[in-house]
Amino acid sequence: MSNFGKHLPVIVLVTILCFAHTCFAQKESVDSKDFPLLTGPYLGQEPPGKTPVKFAPEILKYEFCAVFSPDGDEFYCAAYNPDPPEEECSIVCLKRVDNKWLEPEVTSFSSSYVEHDICMSHDGQRVFFRSDRPLEGNSEARERFYLWSSSRTESGWSEARPVAYSGKTDIPAGYPSITKDGTLYFGARIPGSVGPSDIHYSRFVDGSYTTPVNLGRQANSDYGEGDMFIAPDGSYLIVACYQHPENNGEQDLYISFRKDDGSWTELTNMSEPINTEYGENCPQVSPDGKWFFFNRYATEGLSEDGRGTYWVDAAIIESYRPED
């Protein structure tokens, strides 16, 4: 997701919770009596077909980064306050208890700084996200966004820690995605990249991530690659490209498949019905592999009813695979 504005002054948890409730609403605000009864998997939504449709429009308003836990009982996303736009952003969670989805709550690993771009490990035991929160001992937001993570404990989520590589420093990056073997992929502006922002990966070795490696020109372009999703087995990646001459809109989603020799196919525009004249980003595939989620937005020209989180049958992904 593109950078958000600087955070507002530190606010107490009650204020954050009120903010989260204003985002998840079919009215101007949500309280216990207004929140709809949602039962069943995927927030109780009717599954889509081969045409993308809005996901949970009755409660999702200004949210993006749709992430379900492997057991399907937790839904995480980033929620921002549009008034003023993009100045507050927190990671929130809805939980399913006794088959009923409860109201959203800001996650315990969130802070009062700007945070979004969340992903979860395939065992559901660790989350990764992007934040401009300061390092310990400081109070001012950092000028860039860095990757942070939190792990499950018996009492909930641990305190978030910066994601370090090679035991030296934390990673200035965004929109992480992780394979089953623990390899972390992300978009980053690192000197020597192909374009202004490229997709990189880092392996988890001996308790730390290795120095990020650029995927190279096959999976990157001279323009910019950012939001991304890597398949659990690393067989394909979906990435949001901006400023690309083949784009239909502000950002388009592209796909690349890993070849048998480990190289990647050239990025292919996913075109309609995924990409439109507006912008598409935040790709994500559900843990069961059945549904493909993404975000649609526009700086102008797209109604409130048209923007937001969409989902479609993930079988559409295979339709882009090149023929041998």
How do the strands and helices of this protein lay out in sequence?
Blueprint: H1 13-23, E1 53-54, E2 63-68, E3 74-80, E4 89-97, E5 100-101, E6 105-106, E7 115-120, E8 126-131, E9 146-153, E10 156-157, E11 161-162, E12 164-165, E13 169-170, E14 174-178, E15 184-188, E16 198-202, E17 204-205, E18 208-209, E19 213-214, E20 224-230, E21 236-242, E22 251-257, E23 268-269, E24 279-285, E25 291-297, E26 308-313
Poorly predicted parts = 2-19, 25-32
Counted by DSSP, the helix tally is 1
> What is the chain-wise order of helices and strands?
HEEEEEEEEEEEEEEEEEEEEEEEEEE
CATH architecture: 6 Propeller
List the keywords.
324 residues; Neuraminidase; disordered N terminus; mainly beta; 5-stranded antiparallel β-sheet
Task: Give structural notes.
The structure is a single chain. The protein is mainly β and about 325 residues long. It has one domain: Neuraminidase. It is built from 1 helix and 26 strands. Strands 2, 3, 4, 5 and 6 form a 5-stranded antiparallel sheet that branches. Strands 7, 8, 9, 10 and 11 form a 5-stranded antiparallel sheet that branches. A 4-stranded antiparallel sheet has the order 1-26-25-24, with no helix packed on it. Strand 12 and strand 13 form a beta hairpin.
Summarize the structure.
By secondary structure, the chain is mainly β. Helix content is 3%, strand content 37%.
